[in-house]
């Protein structure tokens, strides 16, 4: 899994941090999303997908990467 | 609060568009304790207490047809705000639920005889609120207002709740750091202390009280005052004014007066922070130097109203819903680790922003098989979306074990409640503390005697007499 964020779109609601705190954080100065782990381990994939689904600003996209 | 982008103070009978509450951890940590605020004991309840008629339907007749409008098939016959009638007071109005099942994107009639669209399904509500082609700018001609008073509110000093990006984002980002998850999590000990002190006082030598006046309202009110740097001893003043702003029954002239008084109060407060700065939000906005005092006062009004009305009503209504669902209450009491999920479920089930969030299309958009034309208004009903069976099977039942995280009780899109992390912490602490400390908590009146806030922009109960 490869995670992308768009800090321009982010509105700082923080729901991603509640869903997957290992992967998302918020910038000190304005609460905008920060990506902690762009390739999270498998056990976090469900939480990351949930974070993307509930992001109100569509600022998180998740790409499935095929392993070769 | 709620921070709604909170209370849609802007739409009068508002939609607390989701702000929650706000604030810096630091501000809370060092400021006033309950001891300093003498009036906590018996504050009046939120808003006016005029009689409530659940069948109140302003402007029922003469649905003026709207030019160039929708196909006849989508005319629902529904007049908004929609009354609940005799239905369960926790459920969305039957008329709205009927529309969700039969015509998910429907034409409805507003109080003034004009018409707009109502969007009721979960996926459609998210689609509209998440789409920048639907504007929140209430100065656009054709913007749907729920009341005449709502139109009055946006006439002066609009907040970013009723703006679009990029201006909305510029202003909102001045506040987002104050409500970010880690700041709010750091406030837990302070919120817990306030909750415990309020319950100490409420239960001292007594066995019954009004939970709204003595716990549900003062808790978020104290917290938002600390965050903003507003003196809590002024709470009767601002709670009375915010009650007027949020009432669907307020006359436009009363809305104007209440808004002016609140605005003048906050302009004076901004001035006083310039003289004697502190580390709370209003003072920091002043120090930032990017906003004039009118703009700071508008922002302060949004946070102040949204910051206490929303969470206060969610706390009281959640308590009532649990008392009416004793099996769920017992489950939560026996397993406090359920509290976070239970709060999400209560947010979903109760959805206190019970009138639709207003938007206006800036382009033609096809949704649910109909075309919404540029310039047409849309109301997105969060309460019906949160009962949508396709997302929440069996959604008419309260189930504290449900995964309800996809609810839209805080709205959706870039205007989603700014204060939601704080609202969550306050609700988790308030409900957990209440259930733990009052094992025999019960209603002190018949359920039928409870007066619900049908006539307010933020739903809830006017009072909740309980015993323990």
UniProtKB/TrEMBL annotation, chain A:
The keyword Secreted does not apply. Gene3D superfamilies: 3.30.70.20. Keywords: 3Fe-4S, Electron transport, Iron, Iron-sulfur, Metal-binding, Transport. Its cofactor is [3Fe-4S] cluster. InterPro entries: 3Fe4S_ferredoxin, 4Fe4S_Fe-S-bd, Fe-S_cluster_ET. Pfam families: Fer4_13 (PF13370). The keyword Disulfide bond does not apply. Residues 1-29 form the 4Fe-4S ferredoxin-type domain. PANTHER family: FERREDOXIN (PTHR36923:SF3). Ferredoxins are iron-sulfur proteins that transfer electrons in a wide variety of metabolic reactions. This is Ferredoxin. It comes from Streptomyces bugieae.
From TrEMBL, chain B:
Residues 56-67 have a biased composition (Polar residues). Residues 40-55 have a biased composition (Low complexity). Pfam families: p450. The keyword Metal-binding applies. Residues 39-78 are annotated as: Disordered. Keywords: Heme, Iron, Metal-binding, Monooxygenase, Oxidoreductase. SUPFAM superfamilies: Cytochrome P450 (SSF48264). Belongs to the cytochrome P450 family. This is Cytochrome P450. It comes from Streptomyces nigrescens.
């Amino acid at each position: 899994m490869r995670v992308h964020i768009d800090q321009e779109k982010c509105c700082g609601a923080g729901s991603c941090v509640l869903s997957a705190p290992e992967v998302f954080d918020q910038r000190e100065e304005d609460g905008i999303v920060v990506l902690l782990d762009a390739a999270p381990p498998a056990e976090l994939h469900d939480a990351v997908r949930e974070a993307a689904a509930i992001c109100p600003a569509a600022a998180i996209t998740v790409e499935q990467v095929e392993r070769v | 609060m709620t921070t709604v982008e909170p209370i849609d103070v802007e739409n009068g009978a508002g939609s607390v568009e989701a702000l929650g509450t706000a604030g810096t951890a630091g501000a809370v940590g060092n400021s006033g304790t309950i001891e300093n605020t003498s009036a906590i004991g018996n504050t009046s309840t939120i808003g006016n207490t005029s009689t409530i008629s659940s069948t109140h339907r302003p402007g029922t007749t003469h649905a003026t047809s709207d030019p160039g409008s929708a196909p006849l098939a989508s005319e629902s016959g529904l007049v908004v705000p929609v009354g609940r009638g005799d239905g369960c007071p926790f459920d969305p109005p039957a008329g709205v639920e009927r529309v969700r099942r039969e015509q998910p994107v429907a034409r409805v009639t507003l109080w003034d005889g004009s018409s707009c669209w109502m969007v009721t399904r979960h996926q459609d509500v998210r689609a509209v609120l998440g789409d920048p082609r639907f504007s929140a700018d209430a100065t656009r001609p054709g913007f749907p207002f729920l009341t005449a008073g709502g139109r009055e509110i946006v006439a002066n000093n609009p907040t970013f709740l009723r703006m679009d990006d990029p201006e909305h984002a510029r202003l909102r980002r001045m506040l987002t750091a104050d409500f970010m998850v880690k700041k709010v999590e750091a406030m837990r000990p302070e919120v817990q202390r306030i909750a415990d002190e309020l319950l100490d006082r409420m239960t001292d030598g007594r066995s019954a009280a009004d939970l709204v006046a003595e716990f549900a309202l003062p808790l978020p009110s104290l917290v938002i005052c600390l965050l903003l740097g507003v003196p809590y001893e002024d709470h009767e003043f601002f709670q009375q004014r915010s009650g007027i702003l949020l009432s669907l029954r307020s006359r436009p002239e009363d809305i104007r007066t209440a808004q002016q008084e609140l605005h003048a109060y906050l302009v004076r407060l901004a001035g006083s922070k310039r003289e004697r700065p502190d580390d709370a939000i209003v003072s920091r906005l002043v120090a930032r130097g990017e906003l004039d005092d009118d703009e700071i006062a508008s922002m302060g009004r949004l946070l102040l109203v949204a910051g206490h009305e929303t969470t206060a009503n969610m706390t009281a209504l959640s308590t009532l819903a649990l008392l009416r669902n004793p099996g769920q209450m017992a489950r939560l009491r026996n397993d406090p680790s359920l509290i976070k999920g239970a709060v999400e479920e209560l947010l979903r089930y109760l959805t206190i922003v019970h009138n639709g969030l207003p938007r206006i299309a800036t382009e033609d958009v096809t949704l649910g098989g109909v075309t919404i034309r540029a310039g047409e208004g849309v109301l997105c009903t969060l309460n019906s979306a949160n009962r949508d069976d396709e997302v929440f099977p069996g959604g008419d039942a309260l189930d504290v074990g449900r995964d309800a995280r996809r609810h839209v009780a805080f709205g959706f899109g870039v205007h989603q409640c700014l204060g939601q992390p704080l609202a969550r912490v306050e609700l988790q602490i308030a409900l957990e503390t209440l259930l733990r400390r009052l094992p025999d908590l019960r209603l002190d009146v018949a359920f039928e005697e409870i007066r619900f806030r049908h006539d307010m922009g933020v739903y809830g109960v006017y009072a909740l007499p309980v015993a323990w």
